[in-house]
Amino acid sequence: MELKEKVKNLPSSPGVYLMKDSRAQIIYVGKAKNLNNRVRSYFQNSQAHSKKIIKLKASLKDFDYILTDTEFEAFMLECQLIREIKPIFNRMMKSPQAYIYIGIQMDNGYQRIEICSNPDNPNSLYFGPYTSKHTVERALQAIKDFYKISCSTPSNKNTPCLNYSLGLCIGMCLGGAALDQYNDSINKIIGLLEGKDTSLLEIFERRMIEASETFEFEEAVKYRDILETIHSLLNKEKVIE
Predict the structure, then answer these.
(1) Phi, psi torsion values for 102, nearest 5 degrees
(2) In the 8-state DSSP scheme, what is residue 64?
(3) In 3D, which of 87, 35, 106 has the Cα closest to residue 65?
(4) What is the DSSP secondary-structure string of 145-180?
(5) Alpha-carbon gap, residue 102 to 130, rounded angstroms
(6) pLDDT tens for residues 188-224?
(7) 30 and 64 Cβ atoms separated by less than 8 Å
(8) Which of 173, 177, 180, 238 is the most buried if burial means most Cβ atoms within 10 Å?
(9) 104 vs 111, 139, 171, CA distance in Å?
């Protein structure tokens, strides 16, 4: 079957498409909300096509596709396949900074939580991928502020950091019981990101309602925005086998 005829038979459903060259090697993986529309666009003569797209079309000899239930699942599967297959045109056309993760690393008894673009440490725990760095930063900062774990010098033991004096750090920079409390907070954050512990969401929701009932609308809006950013991190759907 010719490629253009094969494209016509594509469903108008979310999914992932895998472009292949003459040796049946996968050279590009992409996602689509509508597979028919997205894949058909490659075969349309358009002056808007970049040089890399034109080069991809010249190498394209066949394609496969995998249907998903939602566009979000297509995105998750695309990330997984790109990471496993490492197609040549994805390396040429996609920035490695396009997707980000929340990583939790162990550092001499101190669980360091950070934002990263390469989940490549087998000894670390990662959540993601996420597309909006700004959203992840806002959500993490709100969570850190709540638990007071925004330490500016966590590696310095027995010396309080600047944030400690500002009330933003419980004092893990001093070691001892505060460090144990910090690690307990990190474990609660892990439970939140895994969807097992929603107690923090309940606290923020209660504070939002209380603020609105006392006509503190700016405070209510602040908690509403925090809840929205955290829910965006938890917007994970079923695992794709």
Answers:
(1) -100, 120
(2) E
(3) 35
(4) HHHTB--S-TT-TTS--HHHHTTSB-SGGG-THHHH
(5) 9
(6) 999 999 889 999 999 999 999 999 999 999 999 999 9
(7) no
(8) 173
(9) 6, 15, 19
